[in-house]
Amino acid sequence: MERLVLCTGNAGKITELRALLGTTIGVLSLSDVGLPLDLPETGTTLVANALQKARFAYERCGIASLADDTGLEVDALNGAPGVYSARYAGEAKNPEANMTMLIQAMDGRMGRTARFRTVLALVTDNGEHTFEGTVEGSITLAPRGSGGFGYDPVFQPMGHALTFAEMDAATKNSMSHRARAMHAALDHLAMLARR
Q: Which of 135, 151, 158, 178 has a C-alpha 20 to 30 A away from that of 46?
C-alpha cells in the first residue's frame, strides 16, 4: 500500500496516526483528497462509526482509507461518555467543555476507573478490517498537563503517575489505545504485503 487517507479532521489524531505509521506509507488528509473534515458519524458503536467514515472516504476517492473512532469509558458512569465522547457536552465537540462536564459528573464518586478504547477501520481494495486498542486507567480530580488532546489531561493510565497530557508524545504513543490499534493494523498490512 503506497497511500492511505486518514479519515479525521482532528489535528491531534492526524499527528498521532502519522507518527505511528512512519514514513513507509504516504499519508493523505481529508483535505488532500477534497473531502470534508467532519465525516458522517451516526453509529451507536465505535466500530460502526469508524467503518462509516472509512467507507465514506474510500467510496469517494478510491484510495485505501483508515478511520479512527475513540471513546472514553468511565466505569462509574456506566461506560459514558463512550461512543459520544467527542459530543459529551454538545454538538460543538468542545474538549474543555467535555472535560468540565466529565469532572462534574465524577464529583463525589470514589471509583474513578476508566479506559480509552480505539477502533481503527481500514477499507481497501481487499475489503474491510477493524482493529481495536484499549488502555486502562483512571480519571483525575482535575485536568493536568498541556499536551495531547481531548480527554488526555484527565486520563491517567494504569501504572503511571502522569496523565497522557503530561507525557511527551513518544511516551504516550508507546502505550496508548490508538498505538495498540495501529500496531494491529500495521501487522495486518505487513501480512498483506508478504502475500
A: 158
